[in-house]
Amino acid sequence: MSGTPLKFETPIQDAISRIRFAPTSHNLLISSWDSKLRLYDNETAAFSAGSDGCVRRYDLDSGICETIGNHDDIATCIGYSDETSQVIIAGLDKKIYAWDARMEKGKGYAFESLDSEVTSMSLSGLNMMVTMRASILMCDLRSPLKPFESKDSDLKTTIICGSASPHAKGFAVGSADG
User: Stretch 57-86: mean pLDDT, rounded?
Assistant: First the structure.
């Protein structure tokens, strides 16, 4: 890859926990361990999930932050589906919750209880991929209770990150061992 790295006027002083580009622009959203959410450009809303289990919606124009729901334990993964207008969150409570971003707070529902904690989640169109230990589940967000693919990874250790390719044609996973 070639290119010039981004230079920030005020560098982040703590560990970065997650980086996301907006799905329809080149805006960059960064969360860090100093409990701050930073947006670089002009999106109007952002969602976060954290170690307190709370799911929050930030109105980046007004500065208003509201809690729209929560997990029973630490929330580990968050994603947004443009196709279903859902904020989807997985956590150490072995559950996956979805909140309709168009509805009022507290209107979330659990659509999957799992045997293990979710270590990563990836959304691509109407498809969701989650990893737990060395297992991978692929689900259609329209019927998430029935995974259309379930397999164990060839990795002998816990999967810590994963990403689904567009249209559920494949995926990539990684572990702490490489």
Answer: 85
